[in-house]
Records
---
Amino acid sequence: MTSHRLSRADLAGPADRVAPLLLGAVLESGGPQRSSGSVAVRITEVEAYGGVGVDPASHAHRGRTNRNATMFGEPGHLYVYFVYGMHWCANVVCGEASEASAVLLRAGEVLWGKEVARERRGGPRPDRELARGPANLAVALGITGDDSGLDLMGDGSEIRLRPRQAGAAAPDEIACGPRVGIRHAADRPWRWWIAGDPTVSRHPGVRIDRPR
DNA sequence: GCGACGATCTCA
DNA sequence: GAGATCGTCGCC
């Protein structure tokens, strides 16, 4: 246990180095800690996305646009984008400002605020599924496009990022593999997750589709 | 201005 | 295996 806040400097490294550091970190949304309405998620699965020109799978690959503008800003800010006409996905901006890299938060374990999260997910659901998958994680935390650009490192921020506790998610418990759902640079092993954690969205080689 | 497609999820 | 559903971006 530590009161050390994850610093902006910690996030200023390259996405593929920052990403595994975020495993075990806690993202909290809403009012004061553990007050009603507040939801906290321990991050269990992430993906790194590089910046301009270096990562064909990244939104920033072709340069700055209106949508990805937040990625070009300070590390430690929240980048939220809309996909498939219905889902929001949350990222932590990292790297040096203007580098435009980010870490997609793919899954987490809801630590508190489970009932709020369950309501937002729209009905009865096992705890481990409350924030499993990037779109579901955003729903559980109540994150939408309105939150894009928020400073996650600010004490008074609506959404806050806290470092993982000492000892949690030790390196030998971290697994990595290819990113999910992308076409370009699909072989780059830039997805990290906490090995064996039931809240991770997909495990390699494990079929999660229901059998027909 | 238009059209194709996507860092997904759910149900069958 | 496919549908839901719409903002974004590249290209005409």
---
Amino acid sequence: MAYWLVKSEPEAWSWDDQTKAKRTHWNGVRNAQALINMRAMKMGEEVFFYHSNVGKEIVGICTVVREFYPDPADDKSGLVDLAASRPLPRPVTLAALKSDGRFDDLGLIRQSRLSVMPVSAAHWRAIMTLAGAK
DNA sequence: GCCAACGTTGGC
DNA sequence: GCCAACGTTGGC
């Protein structure tokens, strides 16, 4: 069971939008590394939903409801489907992760431009604790 | 196949 | 709004 993190600018697509939509096609990813990560996502795996630019915090958790498939509209891209699962009781900010010290090798901090990345089980648990979630 | 120029992302 | 980091493009 792997864990993931996806980023979205809330002005383009926010956690509220994701919650209302129930299930979305996560499309428009062109970055090679992000696509490799998307290919590795399996049904039912959990994904942190991070607000970039505005908020800069992890706000909720989605689950993978459809594994990677090619984008019919763009042969250089592909999709996974994500469904909102639950919000975090307390969002975890980028500043909090940076000042904590345990997350220096988290993709979000190490490679800030990557939009889809794996999260280790240890990091996942630590972030869940910071969020006041189980 | 190299690399300079350019575009985009995202933190500050 | 600025700029660093990094990906992509195109001329050679």
